Amino acid sequence: MPSIAIVNGKMAQMHKRSPVSVKPLKATRARPPRIEPDAGDLMAVVRRYQSPLLRYVGHLLGRVDGETEDLVQETFIRLHRQVQSQGTDSILNLQTWLFRVAHNLAVDLIRKRERQRPRQEAHQASVAAVATRRRMRSMPWRRCSAWRPGRPPCRN
User: Fold this and answer.
1) Domain ranges (residues) in the chain
2) CB-neighbour burial class of residue 75 (10 A; exposed 0-12, middle 13-18, buried 19+)
3) What is the pLDDT of residues 86-114, one digit of tens each?
4) DSSP category for residue 62
5) CATH of 42-114 given 1.10.3470, 3.10.20, 1.10.1740, 3.40.720
6) Could you tell me the sign of the dihedral formed by the alpha carbons of 96, 101, 105, 110, in that order?
7) Could you tell me the pTM of the whole model?
8) How far does CA 54 lie from the centroid of its chain?
9) What is the pLDDT of residues 108-143, one digit of tens each?
10) Separation of alpha carbons 7 and 9, rounded Å
């Protein structure tokens, strides 16, 4: 008849034929609790969260450049405004608040890019068409009415 034993905090059946070897748990070093900066101490918040926010926003946007840095800076500006208007008690979890604001700003920027893309493509196409027309007008063989594709250009 199997007996029941508690091994590493879990119940286990022990059979007479196959004994369970009980190994002591490894002693792991407990990390000291991380002290989060107060939302009112903006410089401490920037020092603590600027690098992780840059990595996160860079991952969302696909690169780390001036736009990414501007977006992270806007996140810290919004934090400052929130603390000034509502107080530090209005932010329950600082890290969650910062990353959510940065995420929302990144999504807004991506949407803005998508709205501008068709306009930019249309503008580039019109610029290319104007340049092509100008080149065509300036070519001497276009002035000859007898010119056809495959024939040599007219000599005037």
Assistant:
1) 42-114
2) buried
3) 998 999 999 999 999 999 999 999 999 88
4) T
5) 1.10.1740
6) positive
7) 0.56
8) 8
9) 999 998 888 777 677 777 766 666 666 656 655 555
10) 5
